[in-house]
Design a protein that fits this description.
alpha+beta, Nuclear Transport Factor 2, Chain: A, seven-stranded mixed β-sheet, 3 helices, globular
Length: 146
């Protein structure tokens, strides 16, 4: 019989799968269901933080405008699960066919998710996506692979 921690980890992994499915289907409603209403997101695009689910969904809307067809890959997902909070990190990559025609392999980002257990399950309360930067040039390094 699985422990509560194992059950919770499986549910969180399902939420990550739902993010991938929502992105690939360009389904904002599906994505909305994985975020807490007060989510704080430190995304790769300005500003420094996006507060609330509407702001997070605006980021996804921008992605969906940029891509005609989009896919999202998650690698090396690691989770740490507690009673009502959990965190995880992985590498993620958006790729696909751009709205203006060409295909792109995208870039790998470092992703961190912080989950909070609520009445309706595990929701993302905070996320962060980042790329390393070159200190000498001050520019992001976007050609690294896990």
């Amino acid at each position: 019989m699985p422990t509560q921690r194992e059950i919770d980890e499986a549910e969180i992994r399902q939420q990550i799968d739902r993010i991938v499915e929502g992105i690939e289907a360009k389904d904002l409603k599906a994505l909305e269901r994985v975020y807490a209403p007060d989510v704080v997101s430190f995304d790769v695009e300005p500003p420094l933080q996006h507060v609330g689910v509407a702001a997070k969904l605006k980021n996804w809307t921008n992605v969906f405008t940029f891509f005609e067809e989009v896919s999202y890959e998650v690698r090396d997902l690691t989770l740490t699960v507690g009673g009502d909070v959990a965190f995880g990190h992985c590498f993620g990559r958006l790729s696909g066919k751009l709205a203006n025609g060409p295909a792109t392999d995208g870039m790998w980002v470092r992703a961190t998710f912080c989950f909070r257990k609520a009445d309706d399950g595990w929701l993302i309360a905070h996320d962060q996506a980042s790329v390393p930067f070159d200190i000498a040039s001050g520019k992001g390094v976007v050609d690294l692979k896990p």
